[in-house]
Amino acid sequence: MNPVKKSPVDEIGKRSYPAFSRLNGEHPFKEQVPQGRVEYKARYKKGGKVSFFNFELAREMGLLAKNHPEKMNPELEREILETFSLVIINEYDVINNIKFPEDEIHPHTYMATRYLQLQHPDKSGRTSGDGRTVWNGTVRHNGLTWDVSSCGTGGTKLSPACNINKKFYQTGDPSISYGCGLSEVSEGLETLFFSEVLGRNGFKTERVLAIVEYDKGLGINIRANPNLMRPSHFFGHLKQNNFQTLKQVTDYYIHRQIENKAWEQTTFKNDKEKYYYLASQVAREFAEVSAKFEDEYIFCWLDWDGDNILMDGGIIDYGSIRQFGLFHAEYRYDDVQRYSTTILEQRQKAKYIVQCFAQIADFLTTGKKKSLSHFRRHQVLEQFDKHFANAKNRNLLQKMGFKKKQQDFLLQTQLPTVTKFRKVYSYFERAKSKRGVYKVADGINRDAIFCMRDIMRELPQIYLSRESLLSPEDFTEIIKSSYAKRTDLKLTVMRKRQVNRFQNLYMSMVKAVTKEYTQSQGQFLLELTMRSSVINRYDRVTGDSITYIVDKVQKLRPKLSHDELYQLAQQFATYQDLDPDQKNVTTIIAPRHKTIMKGFYSIVRDCREGL
Amino acid sequence: MKLVLYSGGDEEDNLQLDRAFIDLLGKKNPVVTFIPSSSYLSEQEFKSFVRHYSKFKITRFIHFPVDVPFDRILFQEVMRSDAIHLAGGNTFYFLNSLRKSKLIKELRTFVQKGGLLTGLSAGAILMTENVEMAANPQFDRDENSVNISNLSALNLVDFAFFPHFKNSARYDTFFKKFTRDTKKVIYACPDGAGLVVSGAELRFVGSCYAFSNGHKFSIN
Asked: Which of A96, A211, A378, B35 is found 20 to 30 A from B208 (Cα to Cα)?
């Protein structure tokens, strides 16, 4: 068998999985933004085997038929390997005149895209971008175009190592790590388990389509999303004052958003309206996502380069993503040369990104690039603040268990109460341990001492049972986390007042809703009990728990088939689905998986308050 | 002592037992605690439980998983509730969780103080002396995934209870031999049937079967 599909188009109709043939390196970005990418020839990489394939996602993308069983077969496996098991022929290979058999070389080139990355010395995006990733292409299904890219396909000239050390590296060069162009299966697994959970819980995110495994734990991790563009794809060209390429990137992105019906407005009177609409969309998306990150304790290292996040606020690159169990708002990741931002600083970084898009809109409209500070009071930033405050309020009401229409009602008629409640909620959420800042495994932290999920879960059912408010002592007993020491829990006059304030405001919102919807208080508290028990489940996933689960999966993997890994990832995501409106789930777990899943649950429980 | 032992089945099957449960509650606006056998997706079970018993005008419920740590305040509310329901599931896992959370003694005290305890399937087996009926017969038993060897349970009644009973020769053969060997009495109930204990009185609801000293008796 020829390892490379030389004429994929001709073979459509003969193949069982024709949609895969579109993932052949061809991508509209290549033509539309010529200066936004570097192209590489690629060759078939031998020795790969499929260790994971996401059947559900593949069906959603139209790669598989709707009724395809969730079971691998030899033909599908061959198709996955022929499509994704590849390595680029990079500058090192060319300079050193390394020859590869012609029949192993793919007919099309694959692109690595250019984007701004703060770890590059250049700091303007001239040399940075996909350092070990190429884009496989696009597939369109049910009115949605998907981007597919693969990580671990060889070192490109856009990697930090190439530019810091000013030399090209052979793919797999053991003298460097990140710059060697390879990726590990464990990275794919971490992304898989984390993204499936966050995706189920309303986060926009990249998803893992497949993982191809090689010797020594190496792998190619294939990701998909309806639009894999990041702000950093724009910022490099903005920094370089490259009007033409910036316009091309922007037009390319807008076209995809319209094509995918991701925007409400799809026609524009002129370019000015179009580019400012983009800025306002970014303001809304980044306000909402930074509020959600704060409220769900997601640490996503947002910075001025606009890397680590997609244009619609979707999560990409799970290497630096964490979800904390408590509001550990002072955690900073230690990246050797510097510390990361904290959860609370993410908002300002998100706002900075929005400010850059105001600058981009102006630049593209006037042809003149003004300084960024010129836009520090731009109306899109006001929009950002408005959306952010609204999202924070809504997120809190959602956590309490209110339904969408009840949230709307409270936001329209009881906004001062909601805002006051958010303030007192923050008082507890942000309370810190007297222990102060200390070193943790990968950075520094100061412990949060209260578990807001516990109080939100228990409050309605205790009110229902007692028909009275809690004493400050009882309230503290419920809300205290395992990090809290006796000195942290001292009931000062101020804290007692805040406990009463918390409960009175909570009940005042409950009463307002019961009055509006003519429901008894008991019935409504019962409804809140049922909803908040799902939303604020005792055992919610954290970054640490994902790391330990992936370690466990890695140990089990020699005996796990790709189908089993898929089932485990699905079952884990179902278990972590915190949607109170989800339909009754009946999961039939194979006896062999029960023990594994129990191990996962136990890890999640043990790590539930951690980082 | 007030107990209701449900075998299983759906809401309609258990109408008679539910009526007996409501009669035993004998109180307006009671608080009922739902203890799932495992916290895994138990919120869904709790929802179904609430939906069902809301039909009997019960509006105050507590969801109390015992395989995750709980705080003293919620636990106090549970012990103050009027009824506690032990749900179905894996009997061994459930017993292990109750034991680890030191609830065996607490539940006994709850019953002794007049609280109404109900159990479905695994939950009902737990009310008996031990969970042998979850380990037997070999062709129809729970997996002892937690590997517990001490099978002693709440020991609130002096009989064994076998839920989801199917009236067939292989069950008969097993239970006859078992009762002959152990001298125990087993009440075996198909779905929809069950037992109601009120003080010294034992009432059978639906078609139940008793096995004793190698013999089978049909009740109702």
From this structure: B35
Residues 6+ apart with CB under 8 A from B37: B86, B87, B88, B89, B90, B91, B93, B94, B97, B122, B123
The CATH number assigned to the domain holding B15 equals: 3.40.50.880
B27 touches chain A (CB under 8 A): no
Q: What average pLDDT score do residues A50-78 get?
A: 95
In this prediction, the residues of chain B whose per-residue pLDDT falls under 70 are none
Flag whether residue A595 sits within 8 Å of chain B, measured between CB atoms.
Answer: yes
Cα-to-chain-centroid distance, residue B58: 20
- Comparison of pLDDT for A8 and A421, the residue scoring more: A421
3-state helix, strand, coil in chain A (%, to 5): 50, 15, 35
| Structural domain boundaries enclosing A464 | 401-436+443-535
CA-nearest residue to A593 within chain B is B145
* Separation of alpha carbons A575 and A573, rounded Å: 5
Average pLDDT over residues A26-51: 96
Residues A21, A91: one domain? yes
Instruction: Report the domain count for chain B.
Output: 1
Quote the domain boundaries for residue B37.
2-219
Residues of B in contact with A585 (CB under 8 A): 41, 44
Which among A375, A110, A321, A359 is positioned nearest to A222, based on CA atoms?
A110
B63·A601 Cβ contact <8 A: no
End-to-end CA distance of chain B: 23
Tokens representing A510 are 């409950």
Going by pLDDT thresholds of 50, 70 and 90, the confidence category of residue A329 is: confident
Residues A582, A515 within the same domain: no
pLDDT value at A14 more than 70:
no
The answer to whether residue A396 is domain-embedded is no
Question: Are A164 and A17 found together in one domain?
Answer: yes
Whether A477 contacts B76, CB under 8 Å: no
**Mean pLDDT score across all residues of chain A:** 92
B15 touching A, CB under 8 A? no
Residues A493 and A585 in one domain: no
Residues of A whose CB is below 8 A from B41: 574-575, 585, 587
The answer to whether residues A496 and A553 belong to one domain is no
Same domain, A432 and A308: no
Distance from CA of A454 to the nearest CA of B (A): 9
Query: How many contacts does A have with B, using Cβ atoms within 8 A?
Result: 75
In the numeric block, the tokens 């999966």 are attached to A553
pLDDT of A138-185, one tens digit each? Answer: 999 999 999 999 999 999 999 988 888 888 998 988 887 767 899 999
> Which among B41, B60, B63 is the nearest to A522, CB-wise?
B60
